[in-house]
Amino acid sequence: MWAAAATAGLSVDVKGTTAGASPPSGVYVPGSSSGATFTIQQEDIRGVLQMLVQLGKSSASPAGAEQPAMFQQRLTTMPMRAQTLLYNALAGLAAQATTDQPDQPMLLKLAQHIAIRFALESYERGEVRVNAVKQMFESLNQEIDALRRVIGAHEDRLSSAGVKYESHVQLMTQFFWEEVTEEKKKEVLLTGEAWCVPSRNVRQYVEELRKRGEKDAAVKVLRNYVNCIALEDPEARRETALGLPDLADLLMGEVADLLLESIEIVGKQLAAEEKPELQTLIGAAFVRLSQAAASLHSFPAMIKSLDLVEEVEKARPGAGQNLFSRIGVENRIPEFIEEGLREESIPEGLSELLKRAPRPAIEHLAVRFSRAGFREDVELLLRMARDLGESGAAFLRDVLRAGPPPQAVETVGLLARLDPEALEVWLPPKIGEWQRSFHDRVIRQIAAADSAHRCRLLLIMFDQLDPLVKTLALDEIGLSGDAAAVPLLMDLAGGNLPPECSPYLRIKAIEGLSRLRATDAVPILRKIVETRQMFRWSSPAELRIVTLQALDKLDPDFVKNFFPRSGIEAGEFAIATPLEEPMSSCLRQRRYARLKLSRPLPLVTTNLRENQKLETTSMNLGGGIATCERYLTPGTLIQIKFSSAMKSMKATAFVRDSRSQMMGFEIVDMDLEERYKLRRVLADLAGVTPPTSPKSRSRRRDRAVAKVQSPVVEPPPPPPIPPAVPAVPAVPAVPAVPAVSSVPAAPPKSKEP
To answer: Rounded to whole angstroms, how far apart are CA atoms 438 and 606?
Structure first.
């Protein structure tokens, strides 16, 4: 490591002691502790550096080892103060020596050490102003660069490895300020020359203040540094603009308004800046501070940032749009919306911020609205959308009219609340052009919107819906509570079915009449359950059971008298009674009570290119949750086959919420005889289901199934949790099968407690 010193004829111990000679007395040199009779000048430093360059060239040449006498002679001819300078620099560097491999060649390190010590002591004696330190390094760096080119293997290794490194002038400036005393450093950082201190050193100083608890002092330093961006000196503005991005996180962490103040100062300077080069640098600093405000979710600071972007756009057309895209507000809108949903309120400033980007805001709101599963989320998203004003609804209408189906479908839910009249005009013609998967998506969107007009809208477009999706539409019509649907439901219940629709549609129509409490339908329903042929009932068993369940709500006295001679077993009658949850927080209301099966029920898909085996332990006549071998896309139509003992049953279903090993499925068509078989299987496998209230289906409640206790004591609700995925028709067990008012329910066959 010390070959350079040996070549020069100086013997230096690695512990920091020098042998063979003592430095001349009466000379003041950088790093010397002795008194000074004269001082080293910059020309002396330059001479020493030039000699080190020659020494490096000699060491790199094949004949270098034969020329030590030449350099010893040159060293003795140098001024005594230059000899003493080199001697003390070697001694000081030796004192810092370690046994580790040096990170750069010794001669280069020696040259930098000499330059830094000279600049530091010149500054401390007041011979150099703080803003001239960097210029001094730039002047001396000419000789250091020459030395670096001779022994530049270190930089070559970094470059070949693709590593970026700071300029050596910048590094020497940083090392210089590390050696400056704290008192001097504080004095500079609180003046208009704070920009002279590299951002790395400013950070170190501020972090040290924060560790000592001096937060007010840290804020003063940061605020003063930011103000340097508006100084008249172009070099001051340049250095400040380069340093601010490195301090953005510190500006975020001190005072709430400090980041906002910084954005305002930098933004105003950007709008007023005339030099193109500085416009680029200040623009980069402004973008970084604005991005810091976005990551902090400081909406007032972001609003100020966008206001300043508009000022820049007015001053230089096109520049503001470039800044807006670089800040990336649009990309963070989903993140801001989710924060509001987590807090269950609109954060201060969020609505105003969304108005600055209305188009992407309404797009993201529409997508998030379509995935909402709880009424609280829907109402909050609706408030955000309404805060955007008419422009948001107008954009959604344009997408519905002219957009491709995947995008147009996403607007349905929000428009069902913002502008249902427009939806009634534009959606029915569109629905006839779309494929079945989009029909299914539209029904789910309308259901999630929870609009008072949803029944009217469903009735208008009912004829255009795919036959398999009509069953889902009837479920939503029945749950809407709108009596305007009764005539259609009575017509369907009486057997007047649309073309290509199966008798399964009658089941859904009868359940809809039950939910709507349509007493006018009693004569039609009584005819279904009472009509007999010679030796059997005219209607299928499944149709009669569903009809009798509906009559139990519409005409309970009739059911009480008729049930003993109906030929229907109590266990069959108690399964899949239509469920109503008027108090539930979930938008996706359950069609039937969930059943926890006493043993798994196997099933298999039959229509996929690669069919897979499934297994369910929780389901009802409307669908269930099954373990699966691989992921299936939600909305996929599957044909499934159930197997239980000697019985096999087939059904058509849509895949709902799907995870890596689990998927939900919702039955949309099934032969009535097959459904009757499934009813009997569920009656055999149904275990004891924990009783709960509709309030348990809340976004504020843990979705884990509680154990059944006797007596049942409803525990206090736990703390809020993030929004869960909307419920599907059947998932792990919750409410018990409700007892029928006029027919005693069959005792459970499971022995589980």
So the answer is: 23
Contact (Cβ atoms closer than 8 angstroms) between residue 559 and residue 551: yes
pLDDT at residue 661 in the model? 81
Structure-token match 């070697």, residue found: 90
Round to whole Å and give the CA distance between 742 and 748. 18
**CA dist., res. 166 & res. 246, Å (int):** 14
- What average pLDDT does range 368-386 have in this prediction? 89
**Does residue 690 register a pLDDT over 60?**
no
**106-124 and 42-60 helices, crossing angle to 10°:** 180
Q: Number of helices and strands (H, E) in the chain?
A: 35, 8
CA distance 304 to 453: 40
CA 479 to chain centre: 35
Sign for the pseudo-dihedral over CA of 295, 296, 300, 304? negative
Q: What is the pLDDT of residues 51-71, one digit of tens each?
A: 655 555 555 555 544 455 555
d(CA 578, CA 514): 8
- Whether the CB-CB separation of 198 and 177 falls below 8 Å is answered with yes
**Phi, psi (deg, nearest 5) at residue 19:** -120, 150
308 vs 115, higher pLDDT? 308
β-strand partners of 639 = 652
Nearest partner of 224 among 178, 188, 183, 256, judged by Cα: 188
Burial of 348 (C-beta count, 10 Å sphere; 0-12/13-18/19+): exposed
Which residues, other chains included, contact 65 with Cβ-Cβ below 8 Å and sequence gap of 6+?
none
How far, in Å, CA of 550 to CA of 515, rounded? 8
Lowest mean pLDDT among 107-111, 225-229, 402-406, 602-606: 107-111
Per-residue exposure over 267-298, b if at least 16 CB sit within 10 Å of its own CB, e if not: bbbbbebeeeebbebbbbbbbbbbbbbbebbb
Q: Is the dihedral of CA 516, 517, 518, 521 positive or negative?
A: positive
pLDDT at 404: 92
**What pLDDT digit, counting tens, does each position of 539-596 carry?**
999 999 999 999 999 999 999 999 999 999 988 888 877 666 555 677 677 778 888 8
- Per DSSP, 667 falls in state E
Q: What distance lies between CA 172 and its chain's CA centroid?
A: 41
Integer Cα distance of 753 and 593 in angstroms? 19
Beta pairing partners, 615: 602, 627
Tens digits of residue pLDDT in 478-520 = 988 899 999 999 999 999 999 889 999 999 999 999 999 999 9
Q: Hey, is 637 helix, strand or coil?
A: strand
Please tell me the predicted confidence (pLDDT) of residue 257.
Answer: 83
Specify burial of residue 139 (Cβ count, 10 A radius: 0-12, 13-18, 19+).
Answer: middle
Residues paired with 586 in a beta bridge = 374
